[in-house]
Specification:
heterodimer, A: alpha/beta, 6-stranded mixed sheet, 4-stranded antiparallel sheet, 37% helix, 28% strand, B: mainly alpha, two-stranded antiparallel sheet, 73% helix, binds adenosine-5'-triphosphate, binds magnesium ion
Chain lengths: 254, 306
């Protein structure tokens, strides 16, 4: 399997608080990686460093033959102008915990925004593709609704379609079901299962251990800004070596 | 520990049926205050009717040609100045939030100067700008005497518009700041550049938020345009003054102006009501943002009437 994205020695500080202490991660095409860990361990920060929403203090991310946000010349990383950074960022589709749909656009408007503005597709083309994606996430019948009229689960499915519409190489999910009422979690996870079956490369921060066990090719557990355990789900979830990981898992599995 | 005794202890067996007739509580206070209000209104009307006002003169000048033409100028000045103010407010408001510190500082300076001085003073300075720069000279474009370029009309539009722009700059900045950060991040991850994000995601939502403030600006502008009378601009108030210097019917002509201003502001308020209702429907989303524009428009009302 060829490498899709590679994080190298990511460090991130907020003030004096070191949130990420040098993380490495390789993800291959078609792979699903789930990130688990207690609250405040830096999972969201790690994901946001991967797509450069947060700029790491050290380390970098490699995707599609280039370093996100920088151009190496003679061993020095030169910052890229924002236009080129954005072109890299769209290779990394992001789904947020709080959906972040555009409030002034309909469901369809949300999905065609990126393809039309960034990829330069014509409206008819963008809409046709958007409707396919909305079918895929089961939201085609609500195409003309505004986000304020949707349930949380529906919003999140639209947000997934919106990210997919940019045809990213990798999809990042930051706790996509944490803001949802329990009965709405299933519909979103179902869409994500479908993506995994279809071979989408995904990095998923989640508290849904069941989903991780079932769908992930690899699970990693973060504690205090470090990766403490990484491996096949059955191995990490049932037989972790690290004592702190064992404590964490026993708490969430009980 | 004495609980007040109910005046009448209802036995369960005596309870009335669910469809028992009911009588609403009488509100004598409302009736009395209504009656007092009507009385005061009647007294006021009587006072003005019996006072030393020749209502026939009011009626006669209400539709006088000079007054109507003056009101036309009033409307024109207000519209041009408001348009200028909105353009400046948008431009400088966006600059206020720019990443580039020079742009931010320029916008701050603009607000500091024009919001920090009285608008009447600014009008007088624009009107007399020829004293500072006798000629307006831009190589290859214009070369004229300043007094020919900055006519009273131009001075009025510049003075009122630039002043309004400084106020709207702050409103636009606040509006931009209140657009959900998450949506901006989402736009970034889709690959939209800062310019695209501003144009397509931030500004449309900002404009919706500042619409009520714009309504108040329009009403305020209509009234502030009367200040242009001081720089010999022949708008309505100035026309009225020129008439009463001759015929002495001071209060009658001031009343004529009041009637026209009230007509204008009433029409504007009505338009604002419908515009807000129209935009309010599709924008119904975050409650906090609605709260923001409510406070904002309240401030605008307060400052407009200060
Ligand atoms: N913008 C920021 N400024 C300062 N501190 C921050 C910022 N973002 C995150 N932090 C801190 O970094 C640490 C890690 O936060 P992060 O959101 O990555 O945790 P998390 O693992 O995603 O937690 P959760 O499961 O609660 O989402 C926390 O202590 C948090 O307070
Ligand atoms: Mg998080």
């Amino acid at each position: 399997m060829s490498l899709a994205v590679k994080a190298v020695g990511i460090r991130k500080r907020f003030g004096t608080h070191e949130v990420l202490k040098g993380l490495d991660l390789d993800v291959s095409y078609g792979e699903v990686v789930c990130i688990l860990g207690p609250s405040g361990s830096g999972k969201s920060t790690f994901l946001r460093c991967i797509n450069h929403l947060e700029v790491p203090n050290a380390g970098y991310v490699w995707i599609d033959g280039s370093i996100v946000g920088y151009e190496p010349r003679a061993g020095v990383l030169h910052e890229l102008p924002v236009r080129r950074l954005r072109a890299q960022q769209r290779q990394l589709g992001m789904v947020f915990q709080h959906f972040n749909l555009f409030a002034h656009r309909t469901v369809l408007g949300n999905v065609i925004e990126g393809p039309m503005v960034v990829r330069g597709l014509r409206r008819a083309e963008a809409e046709a593709r958007a409707m396919e994606l909305l079918h895929q996430v089961g939201m085609a019948d609500r195409a003309s609704s505004y986000p304020s009229r949707l349930s949380g689960g529906q919003k999140q499915r639209v947000a997934i379609a919106r990210a997919l519409a940019m045809e990213p190489r990798v999809m990042l999910f930051d706790e996509p079901t944490s803001a949802l009422d329990p009965e709405l979690v299933g519909e979103v996870l179902e869409v994500m299962r479908g993506l995994a079956r279809g071979g989408t490369t995904m990095i998923v921060v989640t508290h849904e251990i069941g989903f991780a066990r079932e769908v992930a090719d690899r699970v990693l557990v973060m504690i205090d800004g470090e990766i403490r355990e990484m491996g096949k789900p059955e191995q990490v979830l049932s037989n972790p070596g690290d004592p702190r990981v064992r404590t964490f898992l026993s708490r969430v599995l009980s | 520990m004495t609980t007040p005794k109910p005046s009448q202890w209802l036995q369960v067996s005596d309870l009335p049926g669910p469809d028992a007739p009911r009588r609403q509580l009488a509100h004598p206070g409302r009736w009395i205050s209504g009656a007092i209000g009507l009385l005061i209104l009647a007294l006021l009307v009587r006072a003005f009717a019996m006072g030393q006002i020749r209502w026939d003169v009011v009626g006669q000048f209400l539709t006088a040609r000079v007054i109507i033409v003056g009101f036309g100028w009033t409307l024109l000045i207000s519209a041009c100045a408001l348009a200028l103010g909105v353009l400046l407010g948008l431009g400088f408001g966006i600059m206020r939030t720019a990443a580039n510190p020079t742009l931010r500082f320029a916008a701050w300076l603009y607000v500091w100067i024009f919001r920090g001085t009285p608008v009447l003073l600014q009008l007088l300075i624009w009107f007399n700008i020829g004293l500072v720069f006798p000629r307006l000279y831009i190589p290859g474009l214009v070369d004229e005497r300043m007094v020919d370029v900055v006519t009273p009309f131009v001075a009025a539009v510049l003075g009122l518009g630039v002043n309004e722009g400084s106020y709207l700059t702050e409103v636009v900045r606040g509006g931009i700041g209140s657009v959900d950060r998450g949506q901006i991040e989402a736009a970034n991850t889709l690959g939209m550049t800062p310019g695209q994000t501003m144009r397509r995601i931030v500004l449309p939502q900002t404009l919706r938020l500042i619409l009520p403030v714009l309504g108040n600006s329009a009403v305020g502008m209509l009234k502030f345009s009367s200040l242009a009378a001081t720089i010999a601009m022949g708008e309505m108030l100035n026309a009225a003054q020129r008439i009463y210097f001759i015929n002495g019917a001071v209060i009658e002509l001031l009343f004529v102006c009041s009637i026209w201003y009230l007509t204008g502001t009433t029409l504007l308020s009505t338009g604002q009501f419908y515009l807000e209702r129209h935009f309010g429907q599709s924008a119904a989303s975050a409650g906090s943002r609605r709260q923001w524009f409510k406070t904002r428009s309240r401030q605008a009302i307060a400052s407009g009437e200060a």
